[in-house]
Amino acid sequence: MEKVSITQEIAALTGPFQPRDLATPNDTILRLARLHGEFPWHHHDEDELFLCWDGTFRLDLADRDPVTLHPGDIFVVPAGLEHRPFAETPAHALMIERPETKQYGN
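Above: the chain sequence. Below: its structure as tokens.
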């Protein structure tokens, strides 16, 4: 395993909603993505952890109040819950997911 610079990885991102895998601790993947605009509604069969690295973004949740994340905030979307990230301006998020987690959901 080599050291990973999140700052350098952010600079290498080519656009919004194109995640980059950074590390694979245990049975999970640490993914990085730029969020900008509205991602489609979807759900996963497993939990998904979001950590706001920079900027601000909102997680719209089906039948629940949306959750706004600021740098340093963490939120876990429970398995099966329809959700969509939305960012008015570019923001970056780290996600901890299982390797089988599909970007657009199940």
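Residues 60 and 66 are 5 Å apart (CA to CA).
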